[in-house]
Amino acid sequence: MRAEGKSRRDVLRTLKDFLSEDQDYSQGRILNALCTTPHPIAKAAHKLFLNSNLGGPALFPGSRKMEQQVIQNLSSLLHSETSVGFVVSGGTEANMLALLAARNKASIEAPEVIVPESAHFSFRKICSLLKLKLVTAPVDASYRADTHAIEEQLSKNTVAIVGTAGTPELGVVDPVKELSELASSKDVYLHVDAAFGGLILPFMKELGYSFEPFDFQLESVKSITVDPHKMGMSTIPSGGILFRDESYLRYVETETPYLTERVQYTFVGTRTASSVAAAWAVFEHLGANGMKKIIGRCIKLARYLASELESHGFTLVCPPTLNVVAFRSKNTELLAQQLRRYGWFVSYLQRLNCIRVIIMPHIKRSHVDAFLNMLQRNT
User: What is the CB neighbour count within 10 angstroms for residue 279?
Assistant: First the structure.
């Protein structure tokens, strides 16, 4: 730390220099991010609650009330009137709380969790931290969790099965209904990681797309992760964990003897209310119809991109389920490197040897067309 302080003007100038090195979503070249530019009302709401700490709800009851309303909105979208939950630091913390609940509820030695190979890498970290044996399950030809393989991997030590609604690599939806039936028959906890798809699938259904249930409509689903800072256009960090009902909270509670509240239920103690306010504001301002319009545009644009890629000779890894498009070329890795040199940020997925593009709300038709033109010039 410097001995003498700098002027406000100098500090802000340096901060702007730092910011100038960061990528700007509005340029339309960030095609690999699961986050997006926060909605303008999210930014405004975020600033209002900079002093509020959800770790102390007795001091900030308005913030806690706001959080409860966000959870109610998410629960309603995911077909539950009884679920409880919290806005947390992101999908990793949400998934961690879910597996903590599963582990503590089962209360057995040598607990195991079955996770498809397509699931988010956070589960590897979580299982290590929680001393859970990670059992990796294969996927089928459609890159969805292989239910039959999972059934064969079940053992007396299995405390949870994980399914994903919107996998991080390809955006596909696991057969959660089949997983639910399997979990029910074996009395095993089922967690659904819908960090990405949880705020897409409910609106796609309203737009006429057909999907099997993946949420609390299925009795065996005990918890769901859903992140407002992804397709919810909230500010970072804003993840969500929902439990089927209040009975699951006792499995994640921690006593807080020197605080006003007797217990806490999240890993993070000091929790910002700013991103909760951002999520609340987006839901209230856009409403279901506004969200549906934005998500519908992203889905259509993803399908347009997929169609154009095929017409130009690229190979799709699979038809897009959500707003994620994955494709291959003659030399996919080299193409990904060339795109990066020209300032296009895409993901090269080594495991699948493909390029992944995510059509988030900041992406426009003109951006997609410019991307397609760049591809044509480099293949």
Answer: 33
- DSSP conformational letter for 253: -
Q: How confident is the model at residue 265 (pLDDT cuts 50, 70, 90)?
A: very high
Domain 21-38+287-377 has CATH 3.90.180.10: no
Residues of the chain with CATH 3.40.640.10: 42-283
CATH assignment, 42-283: 3.40.640.10
CB-CB contact of 48 with 277 (8 Å):
yes
- Rg of the chain taking only CA atoms, in angstroms: 21
Task: Give first-to-last CA distance, the chain, whole Å.
Answer: 50
Cβ burial of 197 (10 Å; 0-12, 13-18, 19+) is: buried
Q: Average per-residue pLDDT in the chain?
A: 97
Q: How many CA atoms lie within 13 A of 351 on its CB side?
A: 10
* Residue range(s) of every CATH 3.90.1150.10 domain in the chain: 21-38+287-377
Q: Are strands 158-164 and 112-116 parallel, antiparallel or unpaired?
A: parallel
Nearest to 160 by CA among 168, 152, 150, 170: 150
**For the chain, how many residues are written?**
379
